[in-house]
Design goal:
The protein has six helices and five strands. By secondary structure, the protein is α/β, with parallel strands linked by helices.
Length: 153
């Protein structure tokens, strides 16, 4: 009894025909994906080449871009931003989001993010900024109940 017989393909199916059976199944899956409104999946070779090209250009598709992460702000952190003592812009928010993603990849849960002269305590799993402090408020402060810290670039 050979492998074709063990697979229940009968005596007429042989290894050369097995590729045809597998290829037919793949074509059917692709057809079902197109019918469902999705594009066909990229082959491994295509994905590998795309990743190599992206990494050589300094971009990685393995993780989402920092701008894709939407941070939430606690009422306390929003109040600190609106008080006027913290100058805030879109570029800083992107840098903060990137730092939070970096900590998330390392397994951090509650982190201190230092960004320019600002400090933020962030709940990483919830992507929520708990508090924000300017340089003046950071003086003589002790940060407790954090498991990580990152200096945002």
């Amino acid at each position: 009894m050979d492998s074709a017989d063990r697979l229940g393909l009968g005596p007429a199916a042989r290894p050369g025909q097995l590729a045809g059976v597998v290829g037919q199944e793949q074509r059917e899956q692709t057809s079902r994906a197109r019918t469902a409104g999705t594009s066909s999946p990229a082959s491994f070779d295509q994905l590998l080449e795309r990743e190599i090209a992206a990494r050589s250009a300094g971009v990685s598709y393995s993780s989402p871009p920092p701008a894709a992460v939407q941070l939430k702000w606690s009422a306390h952190a929003q109040q600190r931003l609106q008080s006027g003592e913290i100058r805030w812009g879109a570029a800083q928010e992107q840098r903060l989001a990137a730092a939070v993603e970096q900590v998330a990849r390392k397994g951090g849960r509650e982190t201190l993010v230092l960004l320019d002269d600002l400090a933020f305590i962030v709940s990483v799993p919830h992507r929520t900024v708990i508090t924000a402090m300017s340089g003046a408020r950071r003086v003589d402060n002790v940060f407790t109940q954090i498991d990580s810290a990152v200096i945002a670039r």
